[in-house]
Amino acid sequence: MKPQRHIENIWLALEIGNSRLHWALFKGETLDLAWDTEHLPESVIQQLAQCQTLDDLLLIIFPIYHKTAAFSSFLPPIFIASVVPSQTALWQSYPHVEIITLNQVPLLGMYPTLGIDRALALWGAGKVWGFPMLVIDAGTTLTFTSADINQCLVGGAILPGLSLQFLTLGQKTGQLPIVETKIITSLPPRFALNTPEAIQSGVIYTLIAGIKDFIEAWWDLFPQGKIAIKGGDRTLLFNHLQALYPEIAVHLIVEQNLIFWGMREIN
C-alpha cells in the first residue's frame, strides 16, 4: 500500500546509491533539506523503524540536526529509489515506505533493466528544464541517459566513473598507487613525469574527451537538446570541462538533486 503523507505534507526521499545514501526532506513540493550518509547497517534501520517522530528520525540520520518542536508529532513516509537490492531489502521494516519502480516513471520506451536512478534523474531534469534532455551522472559509474522531445528514451551508456577508474588501477595492478579524487584541484599535466600524475592524466583527459564526444553526438541528434550533470564528481568534471572546453561547459546544468526532482514529479 502506498504510504500516505502526513497532513503537513512532509515526506522523505531516499536515493540508495552504490556508494552512499542521498536524502531529501520535502515540505510539499519544496525541498527543505538534502544531505548524504554512508549506507546504514540493518541495526540502525531497525532503530529508525522504531522512531515515533521525524525529530527522532533526523537525530539518527542527519548528524548536525538539532531537535526542534516543528517535527515532534509524526513519522513521515519514505519514498525510496535504489540501485542496491541488498540495501533496499533492509528498509522493509520501516512502517511507511514505498519503493519506487520503473513502471511509476512516465518516460516512454524504457527497457526493463534501466536503472531507476537513471530514469528518475532524466524525468526530473526533463520536467524542470524541458526535453530533449541528456543527463550525465558522474557517480560511482559515469552514465549518459537521454530522452527526446516526446519524453521517449533515446538511450545512453555506462562506464566506470572517475573514482572507480582510479581505484581499479590501484587495486588490480602490482605497483600503481590509488589516486584519491580529493587531491585533484586542477588539471594534471597531460604528459606527466611521475606515476600519480600519469594516472590522473590518463584517466581525466580520456574521460573528459569521452564526455565531450557524447555531448557533441547528442547535439548532432538534437541541436537544441539540454544537458544536465549530477553525481559526486560533477563539480570536478565540470571544472575540467570548463578549463578545456568552455564553449561546452557554458551550456551544462549542474544539479545534484535531479533524482529528487524526478521523485517529486511522480509523488
Automatic annotation (TrEMBL):
Reaction(s) catalysed (UniProt annotation): (R)-pantothenate + ATP = (R)-4'-phosphopantothenate + ADP + H(+)
Organism lineage string: Bacteria, Bacillati, Cyanobacteriota, Cyanophyceae, Nostocales
Pathway: Cofactor biosynthesis; coenzyme A biosynthesis; CoA from (R)-pantothenate: step 1/5
Compartments reported by the entry: Cytoplasm
Protein name (Swiss-Prot/TrEMBL): Type III pantothenate kinase
Active-site residue numbers: 117 (proton acceptor)
Cofactor descriptive note: A monovalent cation. Ammonium or potassium.
Entries under InterPro entries matching the protein: ATPase_NBD, Type_III_PanK
Subunit description: Homodimer.
Binding site for K(+): 137
Binding site for substrate: 111, 115-118, 195
GO MF entries: ATP binding; metal ion binding; pantothenate kinase activity
Protein role: Catalyzes the phosphorylation of pantothenate (Pan), the first step in CoA biosynthesis.
Assigned keywords, A-Z: ATP-binding, Coenzyme A biosynthesis, Cytoplasm, Kinase, Metal-binding, Nucleotide-binding, Potassium, Transferase
Enzyme class label: transferase
GO BP term (any one): coenzyme A biosynthetic process
Gene this chain is encoded by: coaX
Family statement drawn from the similarity comment of this UniProt entry: Belongs to the type III pantothenate kinase family.
GO cellular component terms attached to this protein's record: cytoplasm
